[in-house]
């Protein structure tokens, strides 16, 4: 089985490395800088919050699909790991490098980008997958997994084969047949991406502060309200059911830290991918995350004022403006 990771950056390189460790055949379609960094450092180096550390070399690294005729119709499975707003440019290349029986698995956070991609690629089997953990790209070809979790993929014959091969090598992933619920559950957690970027703290330090937890709880509650109204199932991706997550976030510091320890294993330095985007002065995925909550809220007549404020705050940060966090929710930032 020929596998490609299209748009290998933080999550894509980590994913490729896990598949390569399972001795699968994995090529990267990536930028020159990624290829050089991997070659110069003799492989992709992955590590995690538990102290794991491994190195692997991809089968091939392609930086110019148009000038690589040998990969036309070559890949049986392609994991697409570009950002949501980078997908539109990828459709022609995804079509070129796959064949009629290929599976294309889109690994973007949030809502909206997958539906568009599937509409543009009616000739291919398109699926949605998720990366439930954080990956930070460090220097020297190193990629660090900062939070717990395993890749979640839709159940199909390709992913079953991958899952089986991974398990033979002591690695694991999760396969689901209801990815829609998983995506909704992941969005619940991703509502922290923007707040984490706004407060400019590691996730662990951010969650120690009750005002930030309360904001997050409100943003999450709005999404749960939208899901209820829209009849969208929300899968449980944490140790407690989705409806309990905002309740726990609202608890006073002492009680919260007791419960949080057992809820999520997290590296003290982990931050959200949106924090990385803001730091790197890149466009963020806000429209697909909190923005998607606002859009669906409007469609189903559910109020989403906190998510609206969060979107506005991120748009200002994208413009390079500074923020006064208390403007987000002045009434609740006092304790
Ligand atoms: N980082 C994380 O911890 C997590 C991220 N996610 C989600 O996963 C998705 C991917 O995120 P992430 O891995 O962080 O993104 P990255 O920006 O790290 O990786 C995407 C890579 O694809 C490159 N790229 C874009 N277009 C092309 C193209 N046409 N051909 C080749 N390379 C291309 C980008 O280069 P360039 O920058 O030059 O455009 C970049 O190197 C997002 O939707 C994100 O929300 C989910 C969970 C965790
Ligand atoms: C895993 C998580 C939620 C970490 O914030 C993430 O998806 C991201 O950073 O984009």
Give a quick summary of the entry.
The protein has 13 helices and 12 strands.
Can you tell me the overall shape? globular
How much is the average pLDDT? 94
Tell me the radius of gyration: 20 Å
Estimated share of beta-strand residues: 15-25%
CATH topology-level name of the largest domain: Rossmann fold
The end-to-end span amounts to: 55 Å
The number of strands is: 12
Organism: Shewanella holmiensis
GO biological process, one term: pantothenate biosynthetic process
Catalytic activity: (R)-pantoate + NADP(+) = 2-dehydropantoate + NADPH + H(+)
EC number: 1.1.1.169
Q: Topology, pairings included?
A:
Blueprint: E1 2-6, H1 10-21, E2 25-29, H2 32-40, E3 44-48, E4 53-56, E5 60-62, E6 75-80, H3 91-97, E7 98-106, H4 113-120, E8 125-128, E9 135-137, E10 142-145, E11 152-154, H5 157-168, E12 174-176, H6 179-199, H7 203-207, H8 210-230, H9 244-249, H10 253-263, H11 273-279, H12 290-299, H13 305-318
Parallel strand pairs: 1-2, 1-6, 2-5, 3-10, 6-7, 7-8, 11-12
Antiparallel strand pairs: 3-4, 9-10
Helix pairs in contact: 6-8, 6-11, 6-13, 8-12, 12-13
Bound molecules: NADPH dihydro-nicotinamide-adenine-dinucleotide phosphate (NDP) and ketopantoate (KPL).
Enzyme class: oxidoreductase
Organism: Shewanella holmiensis
Protein name: 2-dehydropantoate 2-reductase
